[in-house]
Design brief:
The protein has one domain: Beta Barrel (OB fold (Dihydrolipoamide Acetyltransferase, E2P)). The chain is about 5% helix and about 45% strand. The strands form 2 sheets. Strands 3-4-2-1-8-9-7 form a 7-stranded mixed β-sheet, with helices on one face. The longest helix is centred in the first third of the chain and has 9 residues. The chain starts with a strand and ends in a 29-residue tail after the last strand.
């Protein structure tokens, strides 16, 4: 396994990203030392000429070859588990991944399976609620205690 450090972008660790195939994912920026580690593992490095500079995308699919995968472990700087904290862009993280080879539809390559994420310095994720509903002081208020009844 390989341990790298960098800034997190587009992290989906507490819940999988379901835009395409459901997976936990994180982009990690790479300084020279961490760039060398990723290159030595044969994992592709990207650069989209944005704030991330050189970065690697590390994923873990929800559905593995042999059934569902467990979520990657997420811990704070003291190695205490984090369950519901969303990681904002620019947070400092340490990431542990396992490189692996793959073949699919006559293509092959090397990727990184996300094992663990340690948040060293959290920049809290803030959603853009500017297009969301405003809180109305008057009007209907629900009595529901349970979000979904069975």
């Amino acid at each position: 396994m390989t341990l790298i450090s960098g800034k997190a972008y587009w992290a989906s660790i507490t819940a999988p990203n379901t835009t395409f195939e459901p997976c936990w994912t994180i982009d990690v920026t790479l300084d020279e030392e961490n760039y060398e580690k990723v290159i030595a593992d044969g994992v592709p490095v990207k650069n989209k000429s944005d704030d991330r500079g050189n970065f690697v995308t590390i994923k873990r699919k929800v559905d593995g070859k042999n059934g569902p995968n467990l979520a990657p472990e997420l811990v704070d700087a003291q190695r205490q588990p984090m369950f519901n904290t969303l990681i904002g862009n620019g947070s400092d993280v340490n990431v542990l991944y396992r490189p692996y080879d793959w073949t699919h539809k006559q293509k092959s390559g090397r990727s990184a399976d996300l094992q663990k994420v340690q948040v060293v310095n959290l920049i809290a994720y803030e959603s853009d609620d500017s297009e969301d509903f405003e809180v109305l002081e008057s009007g209907y208020t629900s009595d529901d205690d349970i979000p979904f009844a069975s």
